[in-house]
Design a protein that fits this description.
homodimer, about 45% helix, 2 domains, 10 helices, alpha/beta, about 300 residues, Rossmann fold
Chain lengths: ~300, ~300
């Protein structure tokens, strides 16, 4: 194992005491990278440790996002908080091995888009690994560290899914950490999280991907004619398969319910295209929910 | 019939000779209103005549979009060009009655989102009504005259669907008119237009409406958690039923083909959520088409 430790960055002056002294982020994508940037800005006295590949770590060093970094997990042995920010099933795998790298008590959370699978896998952890699932509701048009920004969580919900009664103090500290980064921490059952997100996040993603693939396959010559409507509706179609293979595999039952609901409605439209009443009913319903969705935004 | 003629607005100075001296716009929504605003700006020596209800006409007068206006069609009797800019089936109905209001030769076009139905209805018109179907590919987040803007057509395709060999001179003038308004005029067969637009416009609209209705019905409590992905994917869900009842009714066969293609892909995803290969294949395909869609934009 090569020594890839990168140079220490001096903590910046000022700021209050950090909620966690040493925060390790495993995976510096859009979310992990933004957490690192935000934590260093909010708590300059704290230390941000990162694990990712060397290319990403170099980008992060250039942007002063992290203090200590390596492409192997040995650097996290001293962390007070470990944040798993890789795709869901990599997070689960890493969580299972965490006790090999950390011997002292440590709080662990993740930022994955499904919660039941990782919460289930956390039930058998040794007691010094105090895991609470997490999911910051923040995103951007592009992923990866290049798109990371310290204000990504400002005003956004950050869900935590504690699964044991013993997690009181760890949960309190995690919620303070999320608040410190500008987010609005919320508690939610992992079951409920996955059922709701299947509709509000996973369904729109799969819809945008299926829509873009269908249009490309059947009407590619018309793409230059496309207007803003198609551009917006298919923006999510740029999302990479890698993250989503894990999300669909770990929330398949709930996503299936959501897809069935959409397919039923599309089929209803398909069978009633010249029935003004059906069109009006579904459009009116969509108008109302869209208005509700936009309440307090823009 | 009350005399609702509104005050004449003086044509502004400057500009080249108008392609059509007297342009009548029937329906001052986003598209009709933007045509009026653009035509008056580009050809101040020309006259813009409008037919709509009094509320809309007052808004248009305040914004100096039109010169002559009434809520009855008698004002268009002297027009050189009539642009039908109401919902598709209202345009068809108006087109059928046009000879009652205009006795001299006149060029007529429309701006509807389907072309076969109106083109078919135009085959039996008296010879002085020279109709060529049209469809400017321009839109905005909101509809109605309030959202109209003279630069709406700048750089956007504007499709014309001539259906007789006799339409040469009228087509040439219409294309010059569209170019004058900043658009890129294109010729296309009405059949092909409807087949392509079913995928690039009608399918995304119905998908956004069905998606928003499904999410609202099944996961309303999660709407405050929604991020930008859902907001973009459902932006079109704000579209009013009124326009779309006409579009879906006059392009039902083609929209059915598009919906079937999407439903097939959603069903494939539904049945393979834990199959990494299927997810990768459909996401990769969507990634590629999305890239193609964005070529030369942004």
């Amino acid at each position: 194992m090569p020594d890839v430790r990168l140079p220490m960055v001096q903590p910046r002056a000022g700021g209050g005491p950090p909620v966690f002294e040493k925060v390790a982020v495993v995976g510096l994508g859009l979310i992990g990278g933004s957490i690192a940037l935000a934590a260093r800005q909010v708590w300059p006295a704290g230390l941000v440790i990162a694990v990712d590949n060397k290319d990403v770590l170099e980008q992060a060093m250039v942007r002063h996002a992290i203090d200590v970094a390596a492409d192997e997990p040995y650097v996290i042995s001293d962390a007070d908080l470990v944040i798993l920010a890789a795709p869901v099933r990599q997070n689960i795998q890493f969580l299972q091995q965490l006790h090999e790298h950390i011997e002292k008590p440590v709080v662990v959370t993740d930022v994955g888009s499904t919660k039941r699978a990782i919460v289930a896998s956390a039930r058998a952890l040794p007691p010094h690994i105090r895991f609470i699932g997490g999911h910051p509701m923040a995103g951007a048009a592009r992923g990866g560290f290049a798109a990371a920004r310290p204000d990504l969580f400002q005003g956004r919900p950050w869900i935590f899914t504690p699964h044991t009664d013993a997690s009181g103090e760890a949960l309190e500290k995690l919620m303070a950490f999320a608040s410190g980064l500008g987010a609005m921490p919320k508690r939610m059952d992992a079951e409920r999280h996955d059922a709701l997100l299947a509709f509000t996040s996973h369904l729109p993603q799969l819809t945008a991907s299926a829509l873009m693939a269908s249009i490309g396959a059947e009407a590619a010559e018309a793409l230059p004619l496309a207007g803003r409507g198609l551009l917006d509706t298919t923006r999510l179609a740029a999302s990479p398969a890698g993250i989503w293979q894990d999300i669909t595999a770990t929330n398949a039952d709930r996503i299936r319910i959501a897809l069935d609901a959409l397919i039923a409605r599309l089929t209803e439209l398909r069978d009633h295209l010249d029935d003004a009443e059906t069109i009006e009913r579904i459009f009116d319903e969509a108008n109302r929910w869209r208005e509700r969705l936009m309440e307090g935004r823009e």
